[in-house]
Amino acid sequence: MRKEKIEPELIEHSGQGRVKIELLPANKSISVPPGVSVFDAASWNGIAIDSTCGGHGTCKKCKVKITEGRVPISRLDIRAFSEKELNEGWRLACVSRAVEDLKIEVPPLSTRPKAATVGVGRQVILRPSIQKRFLKLSEPTLEDQRTDLQRILDEINDIEIKTDISVLRKIPKLLRESKFEITAVISDEKLIDVEIGDTTSKIYAIAYDLGTTTVVATLMDLTTGTPVSVKSMLNKQQPFGADVISRISATMLDKNSLEKLSQLAKDTLIELTEQVILDSKIDRNYIYEIAIAGNATMIQLVLNIDPEPIGVAPFITVSNNFPELKASDFGVVINENAKAYVFPSFGAYVGGDIVSGVLASGIDRDKRIRLFIDVGTNCEMVITDGDHILATAAPAGPAFEAASIKCGMRAAEGAIEVVKIKENDLFIQTIGEVEPVGICGSGLVDAVAELARVGIIDKTGKFVEENSYIGNHAKLFKKIVTTSSGEKIFVLHGSNEDPLVYLSQRDVRELQFAKASIATGWSLLIEELKINSGEIQQVLLAGSFGSYLSPSSAINIGLVPKLPVLRIVSAGNVAGEGAKMVLLSSNERKGVQALLEQVKYIELSDRTDFNDKFVINLAFPN
Length: 622
Description:
Layout: E1 19-24, E2 28-32, H1 38-44, E3 63-68, H2 75-80, H3 83-88, E4 90-92, E5 102-105, E6 115-118, E7 122-125, E8 130-136, H4 148-155, H5 165-177, E9 181-187, E10 190-196, E11 204-210, E12 214-221, E13 226-234, H6 244-253, H7 257-280, E14 287-294, H8 296-302, H9 308-311, E15 325-326, E16 339-342, H10 352-361, E17 370-374, E18 378-384, E19 389-395, E20 415-422, E21 425-430, E22 438-439, H11 441-453, E23 480-482, E24 488-494, E25 499-504, H12 505-529, E26 538-542, H13 543-546, H14 551-556, E27 568-572, H15 574-584, H16 587-598, E28 599-601, H17 610-617
Parallel strand pairs: 1-5, 11-14, 14-16, 17-26, 19-28, 20-22, 26-27
Antiparallel strand pairs: 1-2, 3-4, 3-5, 6-7, 8-9, 9-10, 11-12, 12-13, 15-16, 17-18, 18-19, 20-21, 23-24, 24-25
Helix pairs in contact: 7-8, 10-15, 10-16, 12-17
């Protein structure tokens, strides 16, 4: 009866800025867009929270305690906790939205789960392709002269086991050293290793998101379905260009570049592997599988396959699916027989990273009209009306990576990541809360969106003249300076005489080109489905950039459809999430193959109406 005294509270947020979350006892501090669930924020950063219901609040296992800050009470919280517990700050992480800075205590996992929640509320039953069997074998005698291998196979009588010579070489000595008590390591139906004693609790794998700009590695405990360590770094191929076209061009101009690019990609994977192993203190020989999600160009480059046909019409990949590969094919040094699962692709510019992201988003699993956008140098989009799934890609250029921006920089310490205008004051926030040294992609979008919102930038993208301005923010014109070359800039940090970080007219144009390309892509997709943008029930912003993009700013510049801000959801690194899913459950790999048959790829390069729509979408919404 006490629970009825507490009413659920409305969850609202502006969609602007960042909220900081400190997770205890891990002492990990993270920054996410407002509206992200506590569960997702923790999961994306390698902090395990128990859950088996797919984020629907029904298993009531994802309990966390809010020690600082406020999280509105949901109807599901009222059912899960007593009035006393609610007043103490207990909430269900999967339905708790971070709308202000928080400090949160995350209880340790109490039991070994049978399922894990990953991706965008996807529940995955733990059925990895890797399994272990502890065997107590009878020792051979003159009466029992079965071979060593047969002795093992007779104990695993529910699977038709295959093996290879590397395992056979280990068996004779290892059996006798272990007194015939061993653990057999099985991948699908293949015996890939034998180990002394009972090692059934030690089964690990690594999920990689092999991005053009950023590469992420997540070490997974396959017995619990939880991340053990997450590390990321810039792709070492960066000197060859910021986008895939530059890297394809490099291989066309210099015959030695392909091998160099391949090795640089491998070096990136190798370094990240060493980092997660060092961080977790896990024996590398207990890591038995890797999964890699990457675009078609990145996968062909890392495997030393010529990508030139991807870069020229009619844009052909060597294969949508790859044969069975080993981790060693990618330079990764773990268990010598560790396999590698590589996500297949939809097409040359909608690759395995998007297949992985679509799997993680569950976009094929409900009847809602949903739009998935992976924002980057090449922007991939997938839409469903519940019956059909369409995919396409549009070249957005390097603006979101801030590569073509005058004061642009990557999302590193000192980068302006949030810009707000309140009354006549400009507020900026930097990564690391230090002195600004540049502006990253999310800060660029915020700055342009805010200046357009208050009318200082007009719908064509031009800085307006002060004498023609009609609005309430005239004082901000003091920050507009005309350079010696005649270009107008808006000073974000520093003085007019010495502008240290600023937004130029050309920067605005770069962003316009990028957002127009994306808007044209999704507008053509909704035309194909014969729906209007207002019918879209959810927009998922994915990728290392999209996930940190302010939903309200994305709406204000027209990058996404004009919808209520709560329909715009930060989806996180869904490519990496999908890679985790196929490691946790072999059934998810069947889901990947099903997606290839369900999704229809729409090529934009031959659309006669693309350019006309692109020009229209250059304008900022009124």
